[in-house]
């Protein structure tokens, strides 16, 4: 969670209606042109390569900001750029002003904008295990750029990890929704089924031309699918949710893409293909893992924010998730906690803020001023009903000073409100300022590359991961270990530690 001041008026619709829709404008189409990458005749209308460049260049800073900004590590940025440069010289449009950025976000994601702006997250880099796999990601994104998918009037997202979609549904992550209905937002909508598969095919082509192992495309997709399965399990979703989940009817499942990419690579021969595992592991040694302390850290059931100087704790059974705009915790059996920060516009006190700004269209009951660990605060509750569901909501606002408030929104199904209420009350009163000792101990987790020693086990090396009972599963995904596979002394593995 970064320091982002925003104003949200809580209404029945905004509370229960879900995420913001990303608008996509209509394009007047006239004439046909053969695409240099696909060879297909495509209706490109008034859109030109120069239009692609202008559009992507304008939107790129906004998209980067929505994903935590660029990761501040020049060596890693240069390494990714060098891989990208090797790929794009073997594309059909090598002279575009390509740009490659590693984003400071723990989610596993990559995208391309029209005209050659390509980005991937440090979360994705932590998951990858070789230079060839990262080259495969960049080649896939270059495939979207060269096929000019965004120029076909079907502006779609280049997000390749279905796990992100699972997380978005399960946790309400707003990293993409933050873009709203801007130009950048419209560029991050989903690609069609055929476009994704076409970008995979072009990616294999570019990998082959560059001399990388084309099988890396399939192995990276496979790792992303396995990570998504672990994430789904953490959210209490059924085992088949990742493969069955389809945010669009036309969007290809990750398992299908793995199979197609494997088949595509099997038909290609590359003499002495480059894999680059050792080089890649050296490049990511020390990579920040999970949350950035300056955006807030999740530590078990606690959330701690170093820059803003506060912490709170959620009840056992709630899964905490941090994003640049808010912190969300959800319980498997129902119940959601949303924490964020907002400005006060006109209200003279916290009760007025609850009644007339945050929940202007919601009649609140049991309004009262409270005091929490030195913070002035106020709370109120309501029962909200829509055509789909009934929910109980409790709001808590704390005076953060300088015209700002910290806020909790507690949302519970009516049948669970009584049982969840004591834990949510404890969360309300757990909000406090960090001590100097707390701040001194807030260090980020990092990926450390090390050899397996005698006596090491999956459980022992996974112990410092932040996923509790899912630590071993995460360790296996990070290190391409199958269930039940044992470690081999001397092998190099990725360990996560502070």
Provide a quick synopsis of the model.
The chain has 498 residues and is α+β, with helices and mostly antiparallel strands.
Structural notes for this entry:
By secondary structure, the protein is an alpha+beta fold. The chain folds into three domains: 31-288, no CATH class; 293-440, 3-Layer(aba) Sandwich (Protein Transport Mog1p, Chain A); 449-497. Helices cover 36% and strands 21% of the residues. The strands form five sheets. It has a seven-stranded antiparallel beta sheet, with helices on both faces. A hairpin with a 2-residue loop joins strand 15 and strand 16 (404-412). Helix 5 crosses helix 8 (193-210), helix 5 (131-147) crosses helix 9 (216-234) and helix 9 (216-234) runs antiparallel to helix 11. The radius of gyration is 24 Å and the shape is globular.
Key traits:
498 residues, alpha+beta, Protein Transport Mog1p, Chain A, seven-stranded antiparallel sheet, four-stranded antiparallel sheet, 36% helix
Which bin fits the share of residues in helices?
25-40%
- Tally of domains: 3
State the separation between the terminal residues, measured CA to CA: 20 Å
Structural category: alpha+beta
List the strand order in the largest sheet: 10-11-12-16-15-14-13
Shape: globular
The radius of gyration computed from the alpha-carbon positions, rounded to a whole number of angstroms, is 24 Å
Question: Helix count, per DSSP?
Answer: 17
Mean pLDDT: 83
Strand content: 15-25%
Care to count the β-strands? 19
> Low-confidence parts, pLDDT < 50 over ≥5 residues?
3-8, 11-31, 153-183, 245-251
Biggest beta sheet attributes: 7 strands, antiparallel
């Amino acid at each position: 969670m970064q320091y982002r001041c925003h104003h949200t008026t809580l209404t029945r619709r905004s509370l229960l209606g879900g995420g913001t829709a990303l608008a996509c404008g209509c394009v007047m189409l006239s004439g046909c042109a053969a695409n240099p990458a696909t060879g297909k005749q495509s209706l490109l209308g008034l859109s030109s390569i120069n239009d692609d460049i202008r559009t992507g260049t304008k939107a790129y800073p906004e998209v980067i900001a929505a994903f935590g900004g660029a990761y501040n590590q020049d060596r890693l940025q240069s390494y990714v750029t060098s891989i990208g440069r090797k790929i794009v010289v073997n594309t059909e449009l090598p002279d575009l002003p390509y740009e490659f950025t590693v984003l400071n976000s723990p989610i596993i994601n990559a995208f391309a904008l029209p005209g050659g702006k390509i980005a991937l997250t440090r979360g994705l880099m932590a998951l990858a295990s070789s230079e060839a796999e990262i080259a495969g990601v960049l080649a896939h994104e270059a495939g979207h750029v060269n096929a000019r998918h965004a120029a076909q009037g079907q502006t779609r997202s280049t997000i390749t990890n279905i796990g992100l979609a699972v997380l978005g549904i399960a946790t309400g992550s707003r990293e993409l929704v933050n873009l709203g209905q801007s130009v950048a937002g419209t560029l991050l909508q989903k690609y069609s089924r055929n476009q994704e598969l076409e970008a995979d095919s072009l990616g294999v082509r570019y990998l082959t031309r560059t001399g990388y192992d084309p099988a890396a495309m399939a192995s990276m997709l496979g790792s992303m699918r396995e990570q998504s399965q672990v994430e789904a399990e953490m959210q209490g979703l059924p085992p088949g949710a990742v493969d069955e989940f389809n945010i669009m009817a036309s969007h290809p499942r990750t398992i299908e893409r793995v199979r197609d990419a494997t088949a595509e690579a099997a038909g290609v021969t590359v003499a002495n293909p480059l894999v680059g595992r050792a080089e890649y592991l050296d490049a990511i040694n020390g990579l920040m893992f999970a949350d950035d302390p300056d955006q807030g850290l999740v530590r078990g059931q606690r959330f701690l924010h170093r820059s803003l100087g506060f912490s709170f704790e959620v009840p056992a059974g709630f899964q905490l998730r941090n994003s640049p705009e808010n912190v969300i915790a959800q319980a498997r059996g129902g119940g959601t906690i949303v924490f964020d920060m907002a400005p006060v516009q006109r209200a003279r006190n916290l009760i007025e803020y609850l009644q007339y700004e945050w929940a202007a269209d919601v009649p609140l009951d049991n309004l009262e001023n409270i005091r929490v660990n030195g913070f002035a605060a106020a709370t109120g509750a309501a029962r909200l009903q829509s055509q789909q569901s009934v929910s109980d909501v409790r709001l808590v606002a704390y005076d953060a000073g300088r015209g700002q408030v910290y806020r909790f929104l507690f949302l519970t199904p009516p049948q669970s409100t009584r049982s969840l209420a004591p834990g949510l009350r404890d969360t309300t009163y757990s909000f406090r300022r960090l001590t100097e000792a707390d701040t001194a101990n807030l260090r980020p987790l990092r990926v450390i590359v090390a050899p397996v020693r005698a006596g090491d086990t999956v459980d022992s090396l996974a112990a410092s991961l932040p996923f509790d009972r899912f630590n071993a599963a995460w360790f296996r995904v990070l290190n391409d270990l199958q269930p039940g596979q044992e470690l081999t002394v001397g092998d190099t593995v990725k360990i996560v530690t502070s």
